[in-house]
Amino acid sequence: MKALPTDISIREVTTAFEYHAYRTPLKFGGVPVSHCTLLNVRVRVRTRTGREAEGSGSMPLGSVWSFPSKTIPEADRLEAMKALSEKIAGLMRDYDLCAHPVELSHELEPEAMKLAAKVSRTNKLAEPVPTLCTLVVFSPFDAALHDAYGKVHGRHVYDCYGAEWMNHDIARYLDASFGGDYLDRYTLRRPKARMPLYHLIGALDPLTDADVKERLNDGLPNTLGEWIVKDQLTHLKIKLNGDNADWDVNRILAIERVVAETQARRGVERWVYSLDFNEQCKNVDYLLEVLRRVKEGGPAAFSRVAYVEQPTARDLKAHPENKMHAAAALKPVVIDESLTDYETFRLAREQGYSGVALKACKGQSQALLMAAAAQKCDMFLCVQDLTCPGQSFLHSAGLAAHIGPVTAIEGNARQYCPGANVEWAKKFPGVFTVREGTIETGCLEQVGLGH
Fold it and tell me: To which CATH superfamily is domain 194-440 assigned?
């Protein structure tokens, strides 16, 4: 491996946890979530020439999403993630490799997987800590490395993904077809100025006043119509159950009626939806049935669907029958929970997925590599979040703003966990204030990860 004077080694690692209650519950895969635990990480690095700087990363430990289980209590899964975070911190403190952050993460991630297996044994878990869960825990460490790298060089880190900075081309991490390619080919040097925000409509969220059981008098909207008016929304993500076609179809059509009525009053003619089944569809036929019935019952609603998030089980190898070709012929179908490495990327393509959902909670390094792979294969791209508040949302928004084909940002902490945004919103008011359905992203170009 070539050695560059810009390479960094890890000098110090610290972790802390932050707890926030949700304003209202959010349903993930049939399970209501009422709180979040943030893992905050700080990493101090040193270059080969002796300069030092500190970077930081933050991410919710989304145990319900990344470690679903019917046998292990949620509290035990969260405790396993916290234990894993401490082990990863210890691993990094003892690590002596000096390299670019992408190279460091490439070497550290397999070791984090071994530590996850150790936690599974030590905590006597009935099921092993999943790969996706390990990526979520590792992601703020990876973010802190990228942030520190930019800061130690006094650069926006998106300026630091070319051949003069990276130890290898990305063929090392993907395949030979990427020979001579570096991440700067697939990312923007400057963030887009503004981007539309996807507002989440959870399965438990009230659409109209008639749905409100107990009004929350905290200054924020209670119904979908109120949210649309307040933030002038044009992008809406619909959470569906995936196990009751009648409910799912009726929910989409009911949302369309509320949105159409509200937008008509505002004089707005164009808006879009994304559909999220949280892997609950038993097969592709279920998805095709829902799409067919929506098209028949509400052709306008169907025409507004921009893409469908992973509809069926995340274990692609265990369910080779779930081919997405027919569905992808109707709407882009993006791989989400299944996407944990380049192998699953290729398998998803074979099974008919036509798009990729990038997530900061899987790591900055992996997100950039998957963005490169998706662009090389001319696939649909979007960036989704994990109800990321505060710094984690800034990271996610920055990722979306630096990937050219991504057209919008998902961010729902402002709905469910607004308290965690308060202090960060003072520093970046444009990012945390929705105006005309968009947020400001051009400000995310400070040294480091941009914030």
Answer: Enolase-like C-terminal domain (3.20.20.120)
Q: Are 253 and 301 in contact (CB under 8 A)?
A: yes
pLDDT digits (tens, 9 = 90+) for 202-223: 999 999 999 999 999 999 999 9
pLDDT digits (tens, 9 = 90+) for 403-424: 999 999 999 999 999 999 999 9
* pLDDT(28) > 80: no
Answer whether residue 174 shows pLDDT above 90.
yes
Q: How far apart are CA 196 and CA 409, in angstroms?
A: 6
Best CA proximity match to 302, nearest among 344, 337, 255: 255
Phi, psi (degrees; rounded to nearest 5) at 251: -65, -45
| DSSP string over 293-355 | HHHHH-HHHHHTEEEEE--S-S-TTT-TT---HHHHTTS-EEE-TT-SSHHHHHHHHHTT--E
Q: What is the residue type of 426?
A: K
Q: How far apart are CA 342 and CA 175, in angstroms?
A: 9
Q: What are the start-end ranges of the E strands in 96-155?
A: none
- Over residues 232-248, the pLDDT tens digits come to 999 999 999 999 999 99
pLDDT of residue 180: 98
Of 91, 97, 119, nearest to 9 by C-alpha is: 97
How far is it, in rounded angstroms, from Cα 171 to Cα 366? 14
Q: Which CATH number fits domain 8-185: 3.30.390.10, 3.40.190.10, 3.40.250.10, 3.40.47.10?
A: 3.30.390.10
pLDDT exceeds cutoff 80 at 2? no
Q: Which among 340, 345, 279, 347 has a CA at the least distance from the CA of 317?
A: 347
What six digits make up the tokens of 243? 């196990």
pTM listed for this prediction = 0.97
Question: Whose structure tokens read 């749905």?
Answer: 211
Calculate the alpha carbon distances from 166 to 8, 98, 161, 169, 349 in Å: 11, 12, 6, 7, 28
The C-alpha atoms of residue 422 and residue 424 are separated, in whole angstroms, by 6
Domain spans, the chain: 8-185, 194-440
